[in-house]
Amino acid sequence: MYIVASTVAIVFITYVCAQRAYYCTTPEFCDDGIQVDPRIETPTKPPASCPVGYLICLKPKCGVAAGNLQPDAKDGEATKGAFPWHAFLQNDAAKTNDANGYAGGGVLIDQEFVLTAAHKIKNITAVNVILGAHQTTKAELDKCQKFKVTAMYVHEKYDEKTLKDDIALLRLESNVNMGGNVNLVCTPPADKDFQNTKTGCLVTGYGQQEFTDYTAPTPFLKQVHLPIVDTKKDCEASYVKNLGPKASDLLDLKFELCAGGADQLDACTQDGGSPLVCPDAATKTFSVVGLVLWGKKCGQPGYYGVYANVPAYVKWITCTKDCMLGKGDCKKCPAVPHPPKK
């Protein structure tokens, strides 16, 4: 308690304690967090220490790259470090000295949570997450931060035939250190509408470069600028026109987004779970708005890529994180563990 005296009155200022987590970050990724008075903020689970060059931070910056590095204006190979939230998912059982076990993409949304598509993990029992990767050679991946996944939760209503509610949350074995080529992406406000965002959004991934080219991951992380269109007026109408009236059953107008539609500008096979991010002009940060789900071949004019609509799942994500941490009522956010508990 701090007492301020004056000739008029004595003012008592009461500090309210709030539980928040510690983060280990480099100074550029800490948004005044080290200035927080411990009487005001009571952090939880403090690390014994942070690695050399890192500091304890209470308020990390999300959605920014080191040195405010921006994505390249040209599509193709991504600028190294420009997407520090992109996660390389590795099937531990498929990993050998000659193969890196690439399983798909994901996105770092919290110091110990990665968001991805459920279909990327449905046949995997042991998953690793690699962060900070650009090139995908074994030598380069070995230099990155690597984590075992200790818990995987899939949306309760996930349908592997239609890919409805195709979303999953992965919990890492320990907290990520933010710095260099690793940082969180921002989570958008719940239910924010990103339809008709025509410029600035990008999808990243290591998936195939052609629909009939079955080699993945690519040697390096790729990026593509994509406009987000109106899900019903543009996307559903296009699929119905090209595939027939039953195509409307494929789309969930609330929980899915559509992007792309131009020749050779698209995500592709094995990009599943990878993030579609959009910039916020006011904060100059990037938020994840979509996760790669499905499409018709790759980069076909008039066929849009379909993405999980992340803002529509924000409440589920928040609730599921709390549930996995033992802090919330799991019944309020239906999810099932994967692999199922025996």
TrEMBL record:
UniProt keyword annotations, A-Z: Disulfide bond, Signal
InterPro entries: Peptidase_S1_PA, Peptidase_S1_PA_chymotrypsin, Peptidase_S1A, Ser/Thr_Proteases_Immune/Dev, Trypsin_dom
Family from the record: Belongs to the peptidase S1 family. CLIP subfamily.
SMART domains per the UniProt record, alphabetical: Tryp_SPc
Keyword Disulfide bond annotated: yes
A molecular function (GO) term: serine-type endopeptidase activity
Keyword NAD carried by entry: no
Residue ranges annotated for the Peptidase S1 domain, each copy included: 64-322
Signal peptide: 1-18
Cross-referenced PANTHER family: TRYPTASE-RELATED (PTHR24256)
Species the sequence originates in: Callosobruchus maculatus
Pfam families, alphabetized: Trypsin
Record-given protein name: Peptidase S1 domain-containing protein
Lineage: Eukaryota, Metazoa, Ecdysozoa, Arthropoda, Hexapoda
SUPFAM superfamilies in the record: Trypsin-like serine proteases
Domain of life per record: Eukaryota
UniProt-listed GO biological process terms: proteolysis
